[in-house]
Design brief:
This protein is α/β, with parallel strands linked by helices and 306 residues long. It contains 14 helices and 7 strands. It has one domain: Alkaline Phosphatase, subunit A, CATH 3.40.720. It has a 7-stranded mixed beta sheet with strand order 2-3-7-6-1-5-4. Bound molecules: zinc ion.
């Protein structure tokens, strides 16, 4: 069974190399492993091979202003240009004009219509009790997609059973900020648990947003520590995946982390890395709008071959 693991990184663009860009000033070998050698900067070469592809995707979506998560993520996870639909970039939460497409025609719906399995898609992030108990739950783009397609949200007990991954990988925030009794785990253990969920589904999504938080300077974590943590995660993940049956897809919704000279988003392109059998299906991807249709085409193609 051929599968896709989608690791979504919030707020990672391709900016000019330089001292203000942690993706060039701080060397992270695991990130260069994903790119086949080069650093994640504006000069990242676009490459196409049978099991490895790199693209620089336009995140502006033809709309003025700074790209935002609400419209950028809705575009990534539906294949519709949601910035155009709304008439501007909007975020971080989804705009009401995108509710219809998120609720009825998101990536998970498309995977479900392709694959005759009880639940072919998974969202691997774990959510704390505070999320489920909030009187007015703030649906993000991804949680809204799950609700629309009836993809279960994973909770504390799923996390304790190692069948979910905390958004910060280590569960440090669950212990420190949320005061929950959850054992810490290493980034490698988080990668192991994510790979296990991936093995049971045709499409698994994991969302990592600390990259955007660090870019906004809304956390004590500095960029170098963040990149080292992410590097340990990707190293283990790449070790566990078999390119013949697994595809790891990594992309973002807009730039932010790559420009340390300010705390705003950027209009830089975002990287798209596709490691594994599905790489050729992404050959024509040029914007955020193309990611979901390429995933669907790849899974449809895999259906035909199996
Ligand atoms: Zn942001």
């Amino acid at each position: 069974m051929r599968r896709i693991l989608f690791v979504f990184l919030d707020g990672v663009g391709l900016g000019p190399p330089g001292p203000e860009n942690p993706l060039s000033s701080h060397d992270t070998p695991a990130l260069r492993r994903l790119s086949g050698g080069p650093q994640w900067t504006r000069t990242l070469p676009e490459t196409t091979a049978s099991r490895h592809l790199i693209r620089r995707l336009d995140a502006t979506l033809g709309v003025d202003g700074l790209p935002q998560s609400g419209t950028g993520q809705a575009t990534l996870f539906t294949g519709r240009n949601c910035a155009e639909l709304v008439g501007r970039h909007f975020g971080p939460f989804p705009h009401s004009a995108t509710y219809d497409v998120l609720d009825h025609a998101n990536l998970f719906h498309h995977v479900q219509s392709l694959v005759a399995a009880p639940q072919p898609a998974a969202f691997a992030n774990a959510f704390p009790p505070q999320f489920f108990e909030a009187p007015r739950r703030r649906w993000t783009v991804t949680t809204r997609c799950c609700a629309g397609a009836e993809v279960p949200l994973r909770d504390l007990s799923t996390l304790q059973e190692a069948r979910a991954v905390p958004a910060d990988l280590t569960a440090e925030a669950w212990r420190d900020a949320l005061q929950l009794d959850v054992p810490l785990r290493t980034e490698a253990e988080a990668a192991r648990d994510l790979a296990a969920t991936h093995r049971d589904h045709r499409l698994t999504l994991f969302e990592y947003f600390l990259t955007d938080k660090v870019g906004h300077d809304r956390t004590d974590l500095d960029a170098a520590r963040l990149l080292d943590s992410l590097g340990r995660f990707f190293d283990e993940l790449l070790d566990r995946l078999d390119p013949a049956t697994d595809t790891l897809l990594v992309t973002s919704d807009h730039g932010n982390l790559e420009d340390g000279s300010h705390t705003q988003h950027t209009r830089n392109p975002v990287p798209l890395f596709v490691h594994g059998w599905a790489a050729p299906y992404f050959a024509d991807a040029t914007t955020l709008t193309d990611v979901a249709p390429c995933i669907i085409a790849a899974l449809r193609g895999a259906n035909g071959e199996s």
